[in-house]
Every structure is written in structure tokens, then in C-alpha cells.
Amino acid sequence: MLAARMNKLTPYVPGEQPRDRSYLKLNTNENPYPPSPRIKAFLEGFDVDRLRLYSDPLSRDLRKRIAERYGVVEDRVFVSNGSDEALSFCFYAFFDSDRGPLLFPEFTYSFYPVYCDFYQIGYERVPLDESFGVDLEAFLERPSCGLIFANPNAPTGHCLPLNRIRSLLERYPEDHAVILDEAYIDFGGESAVDLVRNFPNLVIVQTFSKSMSLAGLRLGFVIAQEPLIKALFTVKDSFNSYPTDMLSQKIGEIAVADTGYYRSITRKIVETRERFSAGAEELGWRVLPSKANFVFASLPGVQGEAVYRRLKERGILVRYFDTEGIRDFVRITIGRPEEMERLLGEIKKAFQGNPPAGD
């Protein structure tokens, strides 16, 4: 009954969402603060009769708001039902392995190889450098049909400065797409949006899920030059001409406009991240420098799975990746200050004396 191609798919596995008890969830990189209070006011006054009508298939008002926020023209903005959908459309539109494999870092967002399998795109994982940073020089040394990497990278939190991204684009073939997945850029990185005007192959993908506290809404967007945006509309309209609903579009407009509120909560998260990192290091942990709303950390002598299991027993969820090369680490989402203090306290109790590897 199933098509043969189904046998080649290995689906993406999202962060754990158990229901057996109440947990402090620090495993899915959700924002610990609520979205803009203006959104609540809008929803309370929304005329539900409007839901009988189709939403704008072009998301024009939201695209206009995003364009104003980032200093680009509206025709350089594409809106999607979550950044994962935007990434999927990008894979279909821009990557063709007849010209070589798609390149991405060895450790990065684990949906990338899933998309490659789905669209039958050959790919190659490029090792990170000795400090767990994305090795841009290694990208340039290999034949490829395109590049994609998250900046800041997940799960490491490492962020490349703008001058290095510019240097990559100046040397990479202009007819091969370079996708920057900037899901976490607002937590300390510098967006490459301004480079779009000079590089016709650059594609920026962002999301409302992280810094704008709207993970439950499913809304993302792309900024690129007009021919690439037009290609994404072609893919969208060949798949679903109404991917973003009316409420999502209106809420997105409000979120993009309320920059003051979001800057304030992002600043809180960054401050909490730095305090937690320092506190964990004082307890003997290795914490990789992060520009995201999470940290990638390890405790020498204790396997990552053991850390994950022992914290789960204590009602705290972190993310463990059973992948060779990063098994010693766990990814920890940054919550509110009191939540991270609780985590530090539980770490101190659970790992006093550094139990042996394997727990």
C-alpha cells in the first residue's frame, strides 16, 4: 500500500513532551515569557465572524510589517506556516544535488537531513572546528549545490560574526543558494539581513517561535532577493495557497511592531543565560559560549544521557542527543531566573562528587 519512497524516510523527532507529571521544561527552546500583551487585547476583541472568510494568500499586511522592521521592500519577504515550512520550501526550490551535495554542519538542526531525504537531495555533513564552531572554510573546499547552516547554530549556540558570513558569500558561487537559519539570532547575534541587497543567493529564514514567544502559533518568514521569493511563492501555491491563517497574520503584525516589549524580554533571557552559564561553570561544568536562548553543556565524567535521566527524575527536562560526538552534552533552554536557579540547585544535589561515566 505504501509508496516505496516511504522506506527511505527517517522523520524528525521533536523535543520530548511527556504528560506523566509536571515538569520544568527546558528542552524545546520555548520562550519563558508571554507574547506581547497587545496580542491578548487583540484576541479579546476579535470578531470571530471574520473566520468564515479566507485569509490573504499573499500575507501582504504582515509582509509589509516585516519589510518595515528589517528595512527591505515587501517583495523581498515571504511568510510561511512556521520556519520549518519555509525551510522545506527552500530545500525544494533551491537545492538540486545534480550539481553536488548540499552542505551543512555535522551537528546542526536535525531537520536538515530529513528534508534532504524527503526531497531526495544528496548531502554532506561538514565537521565543526575544534571549538564547535561552523567551519566556513571547509564549506568552500568542497563541491556543493548549496549551503545551509543555523546562525546561531543549534545545538551548540555558536554564532558567526557578520564579517565572516560576508567573506563566505564573497567567495561562494553566486548561482548557489546560501540559507542562513536565524531562528535564534535575536539572543545575541547580528542578523545578515542587510547582506541580502548585495548577494542574490543569500536566503534568511527567521521564526516567530523563539524571541517573539509564539511557538504555538506556527509562523515564520524568509528575506531574500525578488527572484528567490518568487520561487518560494511558486512552491507554496503548488502545495497550499493559504498556508498562514487570518489570526496568525494579524498576531504576527502585532508582534513585529512591538519591538520594545520583545527587546526587554530578550535582554532578560540573555542576562539569565550568562548568569546560569557562570553558575554551572563554578560547579565544574563545561558550557559552550552561546548566543541563543539555550546552552550546550557537559559535566566531565558524566555521560549526557545520565545527566538527562537524573534531571528528569527530579522533574526537569533537558535535551539529550544520542549522536556520536555530542553524547557528553545536554542542551538546556534558558528559562526565567528562578527556574535556572532551581536547575543549578538540582544539579548541585544530583551530581555532588561527579559520579562515574554511565551513572
Characterization of the model:
The protein is an alpha/beta fold. The chain has 2 domains: 4-30 and 260-350, Aspartate Aminotransferase, domain 1 (Alpha-Beta Complex); 48-257, 3-Layer(aba) Sandwich (Aspartate Aminotransferase, domain 2), CATH 3.40.640.10. The chain contains 11 helices and 13 strands. The protein has helices spanning 37-44, 60-70, 83-94, 111-119, 136-140, 162-171, 226-237, 246-257, 259-282, 304-313, 337-350; strands at 24-25, 77-80, 102-105, 123-126, 146-150, 177-181, 202-207, 220-223, 286-287, 294-298, 316-317, 319-320, 329-333. The strands form 3 sheets. A 7-stranded mixed beta sheet has the order 2-8-7-6-5-3-4, with helices on both faces. The chain has a 4-stranded antiparallel beta sheet with strand order 9-10-13-12, covered by helices on one side. Strand 12 (319-320) and strand 13 (329-333) form a beta hairpin. The longest helix has 24 residues, at 259-282.
In CATH's first tier, which class of the largest domain applies?
A: Alpha Beta
- Percent range for helical residues? 25-40%
Query: Which structural class do the helices and strands define?
Result: alpha/beta
CATH topology of the largest domain: Aspartate Aminotransferase, domain 2
What gap, in angstroms, lies between the N and C termini? Answer: 45 Å
Neighbour order of strands in the largest sheet: 2-8-7-6-5-3-4
Number of helices: 11
> What count of structural domains?
2
Named CATH architecture of the largest domain: 3-Layer(aba) Sandwich
The major β-sheet equals: 7 strands, mixed
Strand segment tally: 13
CATH superfamily of the largest domain: Type I PLP-dependent aspartate aminotransferase-like (Major domain)
Give the low-confidence spans: none
